[in-house]
Specification:
single chain, 669 residues, alpha/beta, 3-stranded antiparallel β-sheet, elongated
């Protein structure tokens, strides 16, 4: 958007409300046919059948014109049958079916304007050049959908010419628009696999200057989803949206946009660059993280075995203090990688040429600084000090980000991307794993700093704060995550004083979990339907008998996440390492749990909470993998310390003999 190349769009954007549009559909990437079908359905739909390796296929529309006024989309019924195989419940033509009459200009617009049986009420291939004819066409129906053109060229010069051509059509549309009408201008699809955020602007009465937002995007200023456009149009026309069919929510205009349009456009462009760079880098980052941690776990096995032998009555010399110190620093750094990667987005690394190199450099510097901070802390040689300090840092980083609007997570490498849609605010699933691990392990550490009778209160208090933070609609905005954390906190509190899970402990933990869960459920269900969170929506759908599609989507999402995420491999590798190495007599973890029951309680709570959060959020083992990346290096380090300390014993001045043994027994008696 520029005043020189697209003057009409610039003028309308300056006058109206603007934002970035995520064009998510039921096909990846969203090709033109998928975008137009999603627009007309108000739900995630698709028309592209084949897999797109590079560029999207040309738009193919079987459009017939049996009369002079309308048209017929001959394959509409077949396309609707294909939607029934998807877990979204999209109904093609739901937007057109919600109004009496719809006009379409262009083949793509015909896909969006066609009714479920394929009829397009009014149709023209292009906008008439005659002013009277164009005005008459746009005034016939209450809703008109006009295809302005496609910008898909490879070179910037060609793309600029295509944008200028689309702006010329928009200029004619603006000149012939009916009085007091409202225009929504938006990109509706990508043209290749390199997805980007797209333009969305609304110009008309009541939309003067502001950011666009919606409930679908967590009321994040400047963001809409493609599925929001259909309910927005119906809301403008005073029509009620088919709630069970539409997946989006009406857009709203909020204040806060810079008065200078150039600054506002620059902010949207910066968000697009950040989203594109972060999404492309996330796969590499997590893959390298998994490889590095697995190699680190393999390297520490001989050291654990050597420390265990040294703990016995006989054995080799203790491992070199320098080697032990080096491996401890390595584990501290490994546990701090994810918190440092979250903080890395404070530096705008995505604006420079070598984006990947700068991101990894910033992350490495932050890891080094945080590691140095932990190593130089007082009482560093105390057994639990590294575990407690790193866990507290991890939890603190996420809590501060949530309390300040989660700006580090939006379009972050470790957070969530607006290009993928689904989440635009609150806590993401990977960061949720870091938060759960940090908060619960920190509570277990702090519980050993207070008298025994206060341990349960400490774990419960810290856990309750994080539960509220995660479940609050204006902060974490994840009621399902709050329910999962509640289960973990209840289990940790029940085990925090040591011993086994007795019936009374289980009963109180279950009762507390049920009370908190019901509280979140009642609050969420009591809100208006369009403002409900994931927990409220699923309970409402259960009450209406329409929850099967949601459960199907969650199941498919879990299966996809399990098979495609590097964090799945890390979660499995961490479980194998903990069971086959740390839980062995020479691994040290059993001894650690026996001496420090609060750490055992926190570990049980982390496992429970992250597994539940992943399943409820459709992310499989992603939360558990992120938690393992944060807390397992700390448990390994502490287990190594416990084994080393097991060799510390007071030796007598003379060996045992029959005489002094009898004297010792007498003294003991």
């Amino acid at each position: 958007i520029s005043p020189e190349n697209t003057p009409t769009l610039w003028r309308m954007a300056q006058r109206g409300a603007i934002g970035s549009l995520a064009v998510r559909s039921a096909h990846l990437p969203t090709c033109p046919g998928d975008g137009w079908a999603t627009l007309g359905a108000g739900n995630f739909a698709r028309r592209t059948i084949e897999t797109v390796l590079e560029t999207c296929p040309p738009l193919k529309v079987d459009l017939q014109q049996p009369d002079e006024q309308g048209a017929l989309l001959a394959d509409q019924r077949d396309e609707q049958k294909r939607q029934q195989q998807l877990p979204y419940g999209a109904v093609l033509g739901a937007l057109a079916e919600s109004v009496r009459c719809t006009t379409a200009v262009g083949q793509g617009a015909a896909i969006a304007a066609a009714r479920p049986f394929g009829r397009v009420d009014r149709y023209a291939p292009v906008l008439p050049t005659d002013s009277a004819a164009a005005t008459g066409l746009l005034s016939t129906c209450i809703l008109s959908i006009v295809e302005l053109g496609t910008v898909d060229a490879e070179t910037p010069e060609q793309r600029a010419r295509q944008a200028a051509a689309a702006d010329a059509v928009l200029a004619r549309l603006e000149a012939e628009r009916p009085e007091h009408s409202t225009i929504i201008i938006s990109g509706v699809s990508d043209t290749d696999r390199s997805g980007r955020l797209h333009v969305v602007a609304i110009d008309g009465p009541g939309w003067e200057g502001g950011w666009l937002t919606s409930i679908t995007t967590g009321r994040r200023n400047g963001y809409l989803e493609l599925v929001d456009l259909a309910p927005t149009a119906l809301h403008m026309l005073g029509r009620e949206s088919p709630r069970r069919i539409f997946a989006g929510a009406p857009a709203a205009s909020v204040q806060g946009r810079p008065a200078d349009l150039a600054r506002a456009i620059s902010a949207l462009d910066d968000a697009d660059q950040r989203a594109f760079a972060s999404l492309g880098m996330a796969g590499w980052f997590f893959t390298l993280l998994v490889i590095a941690q697995i190699l680190l776990y393999a390297a520490v096995i001989p050291l654990l075995r050597r420390s265990y032998r040294h703990a016995g009555p006989t054995g080799p010399r203790s491992p070199s203090p320098r080697l032990v110190a080096a491996i401890e620093v390595a584990f501290i750094a490994a546990a701090l990688v994810l918190p440092a990667a979250i903080l890395a987005d404070v530096v705008p690394w995505w604006r420079t040429g070598p984006r990947a190199g700068l991101f990894f450099l910033v992350t490495a510097i932050l890891v080094a600084l945080l590691t140095l901070l932990v190593v130089k802390l007082p009482w560093m040689r105390r057994t639990l000090m590294p575990l407690g300090a790193v866990s507290s840092i991890a939890a603190l980083v996420v809590c501060v980000d949530l309390l300040t609007g989660a700006s580090l997570q939006l379009n972050g490498v470790v957070g969530y991307s607006a290009l993928q849609g689904g989440r635009f605010a609150g806590v993401g699933i990977v960061v949720m794993g870091v938060l759960f691990a940090g908060a619960l392990m920190a509570s277990g550490w702090i519980s050993h700093l207070v008298p025994l009778r206060y341990r349960t209160l400490v774990v419960t208090g810290i856990g309750a704060f994080v539960v509220v933070l995660v479940g609050s609609p204006s902060l974490g905005a994840d009621a399902g995550g709050a329910v999962a954390l509640t289960a973990g906190v209840c289990l940790a509190a029940a085990l925090s004083q040591g011993g086994w899970l007795t019936f009374s402990r289980v009963a109180w933990a279950v009762l507390a979990g049920v009370v908190v869960t019901l509280g979140f459920a009642l609050i969420d269900v009591g809100r208006p339907v369009e403002q409900q969170g994931s927990l409220g929506r699923i309970l409402t759908q259960f009450g209406e008998g329409t929850a099967s599609l949601t459960l199907h989507r969650v199941g498919l999402s879990n299966a996809a996440a399990f098979g495609s995420s590097a964090l799945t491999l890390l979660a499995i590798a961490a479980a194998v390492f903990a069971w086959a190495v740390l839980m062995r007599p020479w691994g040290g973890l059993k001894r650690l749990f026996g001496i420090y029951p609060g750490i055992r309680a926190a570990s049980a709570g982390i496992i429970t909470a992250t597994l539940l959060a992943g399943l409820l959020g459709g992310a499989a083992l992603n939360a558990a993998g992120a938690a393992a990346a944060t807390v397992l290096p700390l448990l390994t380090l502490t287990s190594l310390r416990v084994l080393e300390h097991a060799a510390d014993r007071t030796r007598g001045e003379e060996p045992y003999s029959a005489t002094n043994l009898a004297d010792r027994r007498a003294t003991t008696s």
